[in-house]
């Protein structure tokens, strides 16, 4: 039999019991006793104390709405605890259903990463977010992809100090086999990148994981590169980069910080900037991330490439409309 609570522990126990009961909505006395390693009788006594607790109103007197309240029928007839009125806690800000759904989606993504071993804690947090939202969040699911397995393989190579081999499609759409010594794995927004010493280029290069395939960890240990210093920024300019002129909504200018945009003509509504990209096709990603707030001005090949890409995307939607109609 569990030992009775000591007097000095009663307040701590009550402070733990209240959120436990609120978090579960409905819980039996027996389950609560097992959770706190105490007796059912102690739980019943504590519930009676909770029902007499609250926060005094403006008159410094306790009125009905100033006290916790429980479902006495469930408590007395079925030995179940249901708090039907909470004091002060009801007034605390809550996530909206959309906010909770977004956070749950982010946690689902994190739970799929190899380094997050304690997935039970993440699952528990997602459940608490769902219960604590102002209304039921929309059901969301983040599907795992090839990047997850690629990320795990690359991290094995980094921790084991072995070289990597993989097929890589560059920004120009060209595919070639690369052999690299992995140095660091980093993420930017939703994408993962590998910084590595490329044996073909004999220099440090950055590779996007979703452009890698047939990734293999070789038996060859990584070479020593004492003179290699990784820059603080993920992307570096190259002599082969293309300079592109853009008109950007002035309010959205901070979103181009990663591109090191150079202001050509600042305006109240629209700012003309120049950015350097690895290839004209890199603009597709930039434009897709800033819909309606960026316009490609120059060079003409960049305008044509983005226009062709946008028209191809629009044509797919038009096809869907015709089928559904």
Explain the overall architecture.
This protein folds into 3 domains: 7-91; 146-221, SH3 type barrels, CATH 2.30.30; 242-322, Alpha-Beta Plaits, CATH 3.30.70. Strand 5 and strand 6 form a beta hairpin. Helix 5 runs antiparallel to helix 6 (119-132). It has 9 helices and 13 strands. It has 325 residues and is α+β, with helices and mostly antiparallel strands. It is 36% helix and 25% strand. The radius of gyration is 29 Å and the shape is elongated.
How much of the sequence lies in strands comes to 15-25%
C-alpha-based Rg, rounded: 29 Å
Shape: elongated
Low-confidence stretches: none
- What's the number of domains? 3
Blueprint (SSEs and pairs):
Blueprint: H1 10-24, E1 27-28, H2 29-35, H3 40-50, E2 69-70, H4 72-78, E3 80-81, E4 83-85, H5 97-111, H6 119-132, H7 146-160, E5 162-169, E6 175-188, E7 191-198, E8 203-208, E9 212-221, E10 242-249, E11 262-265, E12 270-277, H8 282-289, E13 294-298, H9 300-324
Antiparallel strand pairs: 1-3, 2-4, 5-6, 5-9, 6-7, 7-8, 10-12, 10-13, 11-12
InterPro entries: CBASS_pafABC_assoc_protein (IPR051534), PafC-like (IPR028349), PafC_HTH (IPR043839), WCX_dom (IPR057727), WYL_dom (IPR026881)
GO cellular component, one term: proteasome complex
Domain WCX: 242-312
